[in-house]
Amino acid sequence: MGPKKQGQFLRADHATGGLIYAVGRWQLVPTNWPDIDTYPYSTNNARWEDKVRVSRTFKPVWMAGQRCVIPIRNFYEPCYETGSHVSWRFESADGSPLGMAGLWNSWIDKTTGQVFDTYTMITINADDHPIMKRMHKPDPNDPEKRMVAVLPLQDQQAWLFGSPAEAEQVIGQWPAEKIKATPMHKPKPPPAVVPDAQGDLF
Q1: Is the pLDDT of residue 196 over 50?
Q2: For residues 62 and 69, is the Cβ–Cβ distance under 8 A?
Q3: For the chain, how many structural domains are there in total?
Q4: How far is residue 29's CA from residue 37's CA, in Å, rounded to a whole number?
Q5: Quick check: is 16 in a domain?
Q6: Whether pLDDT at 151 is above 70
Q7: Range of the domain at 110
Q8: d(CA 31, CA 34)
Q9: Is 137 a member of any domain?
Q10: How do strand 18-26 and strand 115-125 relate by DSSP bridges?
Q11: By CB neighbour count within 10 A (0-12 exposed, 13-18 middle, 19+ buried), where does 91 fall?
């Protein structure tokens, strides 16, 4: 799945107290934007510290309580410690399912009335995280390291149904001891086969 592609997420059904399984575009688009396909901004991620509760794009959604959970078993991040790109797989150390904290919004086509759901993943600072600070290519112009806001199962209820203050309490770094991180090394090519020296035929 990549930005602007379709993905699954869960949102609260406040009328019933249940969950709504939704499919939407991984790029949060404001309701008043005229054409969903021309939205030029990278809103597949939302910075928790200085964007979610402040920006013109994310603040209205946050204030409306439109929080969601993106259900996952694992996810991948790139590491460049070897000098080249090596993908690492991240999953819960005990094998339990996880979720990523997100926000969702509905965009309505004013011509047809069709409704399209969109969503974003929340990210937090990872400069001091033992594992996640090692991910992504070093950039001298932007040295900050970031990570997705992972929600274990026991925190997802508060994120979806809690007050803003209760939801804020479950946003934090995924503890390193609860992570199973596996580098997905590229297979090495087989060694070249050197034929035995052939004696003189005559």
Answers
A1: no
A2: no
A3: 1
A4: 10
A5: yes
A6: yes
A7: 6-73+94-125+145-171
A8: 8
A9: no
A10: parallel
A11: middle
Q: What is the mean pLDDT of the chain?
A: 91
Q: CB atoms < 10 A from the CB of 168, how many?
A: 15
Does the predicted TM-score (pTM) go above 0.85?
Answer: yes
Cα–Cα distance measured from residue 129 to residue 175, given in angstroms and rounded to the nearest whole number = 8
Give the position of tokens 């964007």.
Answer: 51
Please tell me the distance from the alpha carbon of residue 163 to that of residue 104, in angstroms, as a whole number.
16
Q: Which residue did the predictor score with more confidence, 141 or 191? A: 141
What lies within 8 Å, CB to CB, of 178 at 6+ separation is 92, 93, 94, 152
Q: What confidence tens digit (pLDDT) does each residue in 90-141 have?
A: 999 999 999 999 999 999 999 999 999 999 999 999 999 999 999 999 999 9
3-state secondary structure 139-181: CCCCCCCEEECEEEHHHHHHHHHCCHHHHHHCCCCCCHHHEEE
Does residue 165 form part of some domain? yes
| 178 is a domain residue | no
Write the CATH number for 52. Answer: 3.90.1680.10
